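haha ok so turns out i had the wrong file open the whole time. this is the CORRECT one, sorry everyone. sequence first:
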Amino acid sequence: MSALFGDAWDLLKAPAVAHRGLWSKTGAPENSLGAFQAACQAGYGIELDVHLSADGEAVVFHDDTLQRICGIEGRLRDHKAADLGRLALSGTDETIPTLADALTLIGHRALVHIELKTPFGEVGPLERRVSEILLDHNGPTCIIGFNPYSHAWFAQHHPQIMRGLDSYSYNDAHSSHVAPEQRRAFAALEHVSIAKPHFLALGLDMLPSAKADDYRAKGMPVLAWTVRKPEQWERVKDHCDNMIFEGFAA
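then structure:
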């Protein structure tokens, strides 16, 4: 894999990956340029989230709606990128960045895990825009996400871009949009056959996992998310290759 993905593969297992950048409640907010700069300065990898704006731009933001972070009503996807770029993040001077701006800032300093927030049934537009940006970026990157059909799109159209499949136990309210039989299949990692990932990023709620151990033994790295306490990592580290963390110095 190192021959195919170069630095991206070499950086997959170390250093640890800062979830939404190295952010804090008293410092740079999540998914901000400030948080990415802090992660680079501390020597961490970076995980960030990407949605598609109303005018087709890939912008860095986690939620579907703007209320929690920006304090205004409405869906992100209903706003143009330039308008989103003027919205303050968590009452700071930071604003919603585009993926292109974030990658320009990060450069070669960190492996960037780009989580695609592709809604089920809408594969294509976000993947195309992200792939265009990645083809113009020379730094180490990979795409991650929960939608196996998003990964399958990349496997077909851009197999040279490294892919990591996100999964977890699918037993919470956030998974209510997924049919029960599909939730069971995803929790059992049956969608690996669709996504064809190069590595797995698994929630702490499904680790350790015998199925993940099998994939790992066959050469597929496993990352744990989101690790918020050192003792959480101690519990699963023998079954994982790296962690996506927040809230402490990894």
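Residues 21 and 35 are 5 Å apart (CA to CA).
again sry for the mixup
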